[in-house]
Design a protein that fits this description.
- By secondary structure, this protein is of the alpha/beta class.
- About 45% of the residues lie in helices and about 15% in strands.
- The protein has eight helices and six strands, in the order βαβαβαβαβααβαα.
- β3, α3 (about 60-70) and β4 (about 75-80) form a beta-alpha-beta unit.
- α5 runs parallel beside α7 (about 145-155).
- The longest helix has 19 residues, at about 165-185.
- It is elongated and about 65 Å long.
Length: about 190
């Protein structure tokens, strides 16, 4: 039996094509694990199959559980992990700026950024201040559904999530929000 290549989002398309690998199935936007499971259900049932899941920095228990519930034997393949940098000074400075109300927008481009922000804020004794600022006066922008889920799971607001989970769309949505704020602030 020939292995099937299934991808969740658009990022692996170019590298796989460069390698001459075929792509048998790609999850539709917004490219979350939910769409991936739906695409598998509709096009490539996994019951009785061994499925290797490449983990991108952190485990995805919902995807693993969903595959196992569909009768797949899952092998996790963690290719890297998300870790804080050795020098967290820039993040600590940003936490202080957020907590003291000197930052107007915080942009999250991955779920792990949410985790790291809260982890370092707690270590610095500023978690409550950061949470209050994010809830009160800071625009919170999320690149897409997975990051939004993590923000909401941590009881943080989401003011902006672009229609398509891509950086360019996120920048356009944030710029539009700033223009709205500027119009309201102008006399």
């Amino acid at each position: 039996m020939r292995a099937k290549v299934v991808i969740r989002g658009p990022k692996p398309v170019a590298p796989l094509r460069e390698l001459g690998a075929r792509i048998d199935l790609q999850a539709p936007e917004p490219n979350t694990w939910r769409e991936l499971l739906g695409a598998l259900d509709a096009n490539l049932p996994v019951e009785g199959l061994r499925v290797a899941v490449q983990e991108y920095g952190q485990p995805n228990p919902e995807l693993i559980e969903g595959l196992e519930a569909r009768g797949a034997t899952v092998t996790r393949v963690p290719v890297y992990s998300w870790a804080l940098p050795h020098d967290t000074g820039p993040l600590v400075r940003a936490i202080v700026e957020i907590a003291e109300g000197r930052i107007g927008a915080v942009v999250f481009t991955s779920a792990q950024q949410v985790v790291h922000l809260l982890q370092v804020a707690a270590k610095e004794g500023r978690e409550a201040d950061v949470r209050a600022a994010l809830a009160r006066s800071v625009i919170v922008a999320s690149v897409g559904p997975t990051t939004t889920e993590t923000l909401k799971a941590n009881n943080l607001p989401v003011d902006i999530e672009p229609e398509h989970p891509k950086m360019g769309h996120l920048a356009v949505a944030l710029a539009a929000r700033w223009r709205e704020i500027d119009k309201k602030a102008s006399p």
